[in-house]
């Protein structure tokens, strides 16, 4: 069977818009069956996290990017929801505070990176500083190019100091976003998730798609790969992310540290 | 008059040991006169900090490195002591804590960098991670080379995001260190400053000198210059650092932000 890492790995020359957001290459064709498989994978991921923590050798950083409604929150719940809350930390980066704005754009991000044995999920990240900021011309191409260089150096440093980085771009179609926004508007129980500003951002759809492609071209690397996840189907989105997580964790060859034979001689009095 | 920035700027090919730690090129020849001048410069620096804070455009980062007893604490007091405590922050980096060790070596450092309008002094810094760590073979040359690359990228990023960086290497002679350590041992009031481990580190004197030269060669840059300060004389050390600070601040063309003419119309009731 082909590696799922290869299957979803972004190609530098790829234009995001060329890809079908509705693709479901991993699906069995049966949604119930797919969901059972996600549960199994999520369980396996939870067990692996326990070993990751015990071993304290690797740092695991997951970065989620995507348009509004692309399912970043849903992916965190569906793929990482079985992990002991003690063992996972999800960080949502919002619009920067005044104090954060007074520092370089990586300042608040660097503070949140995982330590040895930790698994941290960035729900949005430093990539917003080359996306929404560029879409609205808050920064120009020259500043954007500088930031890409800083991001590449930063991720290389993280990688060389023991961080395993996985970057997921959740790819939805414009039609699917329309549907999801309409659902949020129609259902009062979903109003808390709806921000009228999302409709404003939607007007920049094409600019965002162009900039996502640039983001991938500028920062995809073997030590910090981008995976493009077709995300019109929520089930397949989680199946794809969970499968990539499992294959990545398997490659780490996680194992509990060796026991200490001296301990057997100890008496608890 | 020649620029003091040029006078003390490290040369990449320089061997530290070639320099006389006892040099006093800025001295008037009269210690009382020199001290008066330091006071004047320190006063000017304090006033400039007030404008720096009001303007909130620049971030100012001072890095102090040097052997034990080279006068890092003394320089902070003598040069920056007249600044309003609200306007200056001195950060002493000690041996890393377990949590700090679980992260990359720049993690704790990045958290402490100045924001807009702030002046921050690093008393020791990320450079310890290529100095004491290398002297004791806790890292090898390959890891050391990686760290130098990370440091160069980090400082370039700080510079490009508005940080003015000044790095001071306080250069003392082996004889002067011996004298100062003996004073600390002889005077009970100085015992709190004495750490028996300083005598152990002193045995690696030549290794440290070689590594300081390498540090300068690897990381001196126009946007993050190293200044080598002859520091056998405490008075001249402060005179040199204060002079470099003043010339650097002058180049920033600091100015209070323009007043708001509308404010004159306001009434306080």
TrEMBL record, chains A, B:
Claim: GTP-binding is one of the keywords in the record: no
Keyword annotations of the record: Kinase, Transferase
Molecular-function GO terms, alphabetical: polyphosphate kinase activity
GO BP terms in the entry: polyphosphate metabolic process
Gene3D superfamilies according to UniProt: P-loop containing nucleotide triphosphate hydrolases
Pfam families in the cross-refs: PPK2 (PF03976)
InterPro entries in alphabetical order: P-loop_NTPase, Polyphosphate_phosphotransfera, PPK2-rel_1, PPK2-related
Organism superkingdom: Bacteria
SUPFAM superfamilies found in the cross-reference section: P-loop containing nucleoside triphosphate hydrolases
Residue ranges annotated for the Polyphosphate kinase-2-related domain, each copy included: 31-251
PANTHER family: POLYPHOSPHATE:AMP PHOSPHOTRANSFERASE, POLYPHOSPHATE:AMP PHOSPHOTRANSFERASE-RELATED
Family: Belongs to the polyphosphate kinase 2 (PPK2) family. Class I subfamily.
Protein name as catalogued: Polyphosphate kinase
């Amino acid at each position: 069977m082909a590696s799922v890492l290869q299957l979803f790995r972004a190609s530098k020359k790829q234009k995001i818009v060329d890809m079908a957001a509705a693709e479901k290459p991993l699906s069995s064709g049966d949604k119930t069956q797919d969901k059972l498989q996600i549960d199994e994978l999520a369980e396996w991921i939870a067990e692996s996290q326990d070993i990751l923590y015990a071993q304290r050798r690797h740092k695991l950083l997951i970065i989620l990017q995507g348009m509004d409604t692309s399912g970043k929150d849903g992916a965190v719940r569906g793929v990482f929801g079985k992990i002991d809350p003690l063992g996972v930390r999800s960080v949502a980066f919002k619009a920067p505070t005044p104090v954060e704005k007074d520092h370089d754009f990586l300042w608040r991000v660097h503070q949140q990176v995982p330590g040895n044995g930790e698994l941290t999920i960035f729900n949005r990240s430093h990539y917003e500083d080359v996306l929404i900021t560029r879409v609205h011309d808050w920064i120009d191409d020259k500043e954007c190019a500088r930031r890409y260089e800083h991001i590449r150096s930063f991720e290389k440093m993280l990688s060389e100091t023991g961080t395993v980085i996985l970057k997921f771009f959740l790819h939805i179609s414009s039609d699917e976003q329309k549907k999801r926004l309409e659902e949020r508007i129609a259902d009062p129980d979903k109003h808390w998730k709806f921000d009228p500003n999302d409709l404003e951002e939607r007007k920049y759809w094409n600019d965002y798609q162009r900039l996502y492609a640039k983001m991938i071209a500028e920062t995809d690397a073997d030590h910090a790969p981008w995976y493009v996840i077709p995300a019109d189907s929520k089930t397949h989105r989680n199946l794809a992310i969970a499968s990539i997580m499992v294959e990545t964790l398997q490659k780490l060859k996680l194992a509990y540290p060796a026991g200490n034979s001296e301990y057997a001689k100890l008496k608890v009095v």
